[in-house]
Design brief:
The protein contains 15 helices and 16 strands. The protein has an eight-stranded mixed β-sheet, sandwiched between helices. The radius of gyration is 28 Å and the shape is elongated. The chain starts with 15 loop residues before the first helix and ends with a helix. The mean pLDDT is 92. It binds one RNA strand of 77 nucleotides through helix 3, strand 6, strand 11, helix 11 and helix 13.
Length: 418
RNA sequence: GUGAGCGUGGCCUAGCGGUUUAGGGCGCCAGGUUGUGGCCCUGGAGAUCGGGGGUUCGAAUCCCCUCGCUCACCCCA
């Protein structure tokens, strides 16, 4: 027997309303903030992610689905959405449009990772990016958009974790301080941290190992070393967020797993934090476009995991709006009646009434049983008798009198809601 | 990549070495009503007990491997 590959899942019809709910809400709010949709390829040149996401990240080191196509090209199923969008911005000269260019996208992402709740090998995220503007107002606007979507979905108890990790001006000096601080402590921290000390010192602050916590507690805080520009940017952002009534938790230890971030970084955490804390997250990446061979382009963005949002919706007992379900079931007996039934059903559908017709030569009883199980409001009954009289029987499934109407009248009545 | 728990028809599950041709509930299909559902009754289909190998006279039940799920670590959406 075949099974869906590890870490992937089938979304069955019962599950689909959750997805539609999240996607519709996101689209609705994206439009209100002036974000336009972009769709980019599912795979890209491997080099895009090597340079974009960062060579020392876990994603690039061990989680990418990389393959060679028949032409010998090195390709990778995208592990995240931002690199593609920046690539498209550069490739299509979007810098010549009014800045910032505000974009959103629903992306399917792939990471080779050990699956568990809220973590899959194929997963989906909603991505928003604003490219070409440095103003912290854009950071605030973007974060507010994400927050409003969570609110519109009805999620409660979320916290916004916010930090600034500086830029090319102030971060190198800070990293030097951090290294100096850690040098005498290296013997006391875990192996991962000893490696991070070399490859990615910022991540030292992010370690969860108990032995490393004392070192982290005494470590210099990046926030104290921000250059004037970064500090100003951060202060302005906080003001905007306060004005937007978004409760912010300053988290000096918040660091993100992708290398391209500068200044603003943030994550949104659900109240009941499992292992997979982040519902969504993002930040500013002013150096990425240049890194990918474009002109220097300031930008901010976020991604939120659809599966994780849905998990949180369920945990909070939030039920998505139901999708249109069949409201009418046309049952019949006999060949002649079947043709009349199919014609009637088709007319109902053209009038916008979701309608099902009995199939498979079932008995009237079996057809009504189905109609009942499907929860339709009305059954329409057609047999030789009705055919001879030029009528159809309208049967309210909730109980009550049946009524005989001419087919045209029945269509009108059902189209009007019964 | 590391550690732990679990895996019986579509779903929930009983059975945990020998009246098992694997039992029940839900769901599905049909009959009880030669054209009328929901309740009830009856019947039917549907399981190589995740897969493979081994131990044994005998395995769903014990052992090994493998696949998958869950949880924690790690990482992140």
């Amino acid at each position: 027997m075949f099974q869906a590959p590890r870490g992937t899942q089938d979304i069955l019809p019962e599950e689909a309303p959750y997805w539609t709910f999240v996607e519709q809400t996101a689209r609705d709010w994206a439009a209100r903030y002036g974000y336009g949709e972009i769709r980019t390829p599912t795979f890209e040149d491997t080099g895009l992610f090597l340079r974009g996401v960062g060579g020392s990240t876990d994603i690039v080191e061990k989680e990418m689905y990389t393959f060679q196509d028949k032409g010998g090209g090195e390709l990778t199923l995208r592990p995240e959405g931002t690199a593609s969008i920046v690539r498209a911005y550069i490739e299509h000269g979007l810098a010549s449009r009014p800045q910032p260019v505000r974009l959103f996208s629903f992306v399917t992402c792939f990471r080779y990772d050990r699956p568990q709740r809220g973590r899959y090998r194929e997963f989906h995220q909603w991505d928003c990016e604003a490219l070409g503007e440095l103003d912290p107002l854009v950071d605030a606007e973007l974060i507010t958009l994400l927050w409003r979507v969570y609110q519109a979905l009805g999620l409660r108890g979320l916290t916004l974790q916010l930090n600034s990790i500086g830029d090319a001006q102030c971060r190198p000096a800070y990293l030097e301080r951090l290294r100096e601080y850690y040098r005498p402590l290296l013997a006391t921290v875990c192996g991962d941290c000893q490696r991070r000390y070399q490859t990615n010192p910022l991540r030292l602050l992010d370690c969860k190992n108990p032995p490393c916590q004392t070192a982290i507690a005494g470590a210099p805080r990046l926030l104290d070393y921000l250059c004037a520009e970064c500090a100003e940017h951060f202060a302005a952002l906080r003001t905007y967020l306060t004005d937007a009534d978004i409760p912010v938790e300053l988290n000096p230890r918040l660091v993100r797993g992708l290398d391209y971030y500068t200044k603003t970084v943030f994550e949104v955490w659900p109240a009941a934090a499992g292992a997979q804390t982040a519902l969504g997250g993002g930040g500013r990446y002013d150096g990425l476009a240049e890194q990918l061979g474009g002109r220097p382009t300031p930008a901010v963005g976020f991604a939120t995991g659809i599966e994780r949002v849905i998990l949180t919706l369920k945990a909070q007992g939030i039920v998505p709006p139901a999708l249109p379900a069949p409201r009418v079931y046309v049952a019949y007996l006999g060949d002649a009646a079947r043709r009349a039934a199919v014609r009637l059903a088709d007319r109902l559908r053209q009038r916008g009434v979701p309608t099902l017709v009995g199939v498979g030569g079932r008995s009237m009883r079996a057809q009504l049983r189905q109609a009942n199980a499907l929860g339709v409001a009305w059954a329409v009954l057609i047999g030789d008798d009705e055919l001879a009289r030029g009528v159809v029987q309208l049967k309210p499934m909730a109980g009550g009198e049946e009524l005989a109407l001419a087919p045209e009248a029945a269509v009108e009545r059902l189209a009007a809601g019964g």
